[in-house]
Amino acid sequence: MTSPTPDALLGPADVRELAAALGVRPTKQRGQNFVIDANTVRRIVRTAGVRPDDVVVEVGPGLGSLTLALLEAADRVTAVEIDDVLAAALPATVAARMPGRAERFALVHSDAMHVTELPGPAPTALVANLPYNVAVPVLLHMLESFPGIERTLVMVQSEVADRLAAAPGSKVYGVPSVKANWYAEVKRAGAIGRNVFWPAPNVDSGLVSLVRRAEPLKTTASRREVFAVVDAAFAQRRKTLRAALAGWAGSAAAAEAALVAAGVSPQARGESLTVEEFARIAENAGNAGNKEQGQQ
């Protein structure tokens, strides 16, 4: 592995200079806040536990601050960038600042929500400063599309980090918490100050670590079936599950039948259930149908 030059990473002046040369102004529409602090990106790479044999996928690399730090540590880095100007410029930035590592870098110019395959070896890790307005759907899509991703570390809005890592019974436990837990063990992995970004966002940021389950959740229900129950349960989170799942099951009585068969109280609410319990409810959808048929 060729060692990068000491000044290979981007500092505040480098970021502004690059942006000015490209005529780039960060846009709120795409949730762009560029990291301008080299110590922060190195900290993210350390926290992510990136290894020399890792193939890392990065979403939303922007001007390349985190990309360069990942290239210092990983075997390969593939970056997915939707912005035309940024996507066109990033390979040149990598080649200029880390010429010895440029052949280990690939750029995919696309919306991450539409990416289902990547060039080269399958990714083993996902590390990204995710655009805050699409963080959860992008994260879930990448985990679903690339089952080889073992470890993930994402930087997201602090409130989103709390929701992703929340445990059952927490006020912020909801759809993102359950769906992320379908794939992985999830925890908060630190906080990031506002002053390491340009422009500085008006929200705090947090790091979330996701380590994929060694074995998939044991259930006969499919991911789609389980997620349908989760979506229904939290669409009306103040209601009991008997009422909230009535539309999903066909009626409140059918929902109750499925819940009882799953060993879940019909009076419980979605925020108290684990992902395993949601899976059991999905497995017992047939009991909801049987109950309906028995009443006809």
Automatic annotation (TrEMBL):
Cellular localization per UniProt: Cytoplasm
Chief localisation class: cytoplasm
InterPro entries (alphabetical): KsgA/Erm, rRNA_Ade_diMease-like_C, rRNA_Ade_Mease_Trfase_CS, rRNA_Ade_methylase_Trfase_N, rRNA_adenine_dimethylase, SAM-dependent_MTases_sf
UniProt EC number: 2.1.1.182
Gene Ontology molecular functions: 16S rRNA (adenine(1518)-N(6)/adenine(1519)-N(6))-dimethyltransferase activity
Keyword RNA-binding in annotation: yes
CDD domains reported in the protein's UniProt record: AdoMet_MTases (cd02440)
Highest taxon above the source species: Bacteria
Reactions catalysed: adenosine(1518)/adenosine(1519) in 16S rRNA + 4 S-adenosyl-L-methionine = N(6)-dimethyladenosine(1518)/N(6)-dimethyladenosine(1519) in 16S rRNA + 4 S-adenosyl-L-homocysteine + 4 H(+)
Top class in the EC scheme: transferase
Residue ranges of coiled coil: none
Domain Ribosomal RNA adenine methylase transferase N-terminal: 40-214
Keywords: Cytoplasm, Methyltransferase, RNA-binding, rRNA processing, S-adenosyl-L-methionine, Transferase
Binding of S-adenosyl-L-methionine, residues: N33, V35, G60, E81, D111, N129
Pfam families: RrnaAD (PF00398)
Signal peptide (from-to): none
Its job: Specifically dimethylates two adjacent adenosines (A1518 and A1519) in the loop of a conserved hairpin near the 3'-end of 16S rRNA in the 30S particle. May play a critical role in biogenesis of 30S subunits.
Name of this protein: Ribosomal RNA small subunit methyltransferase A
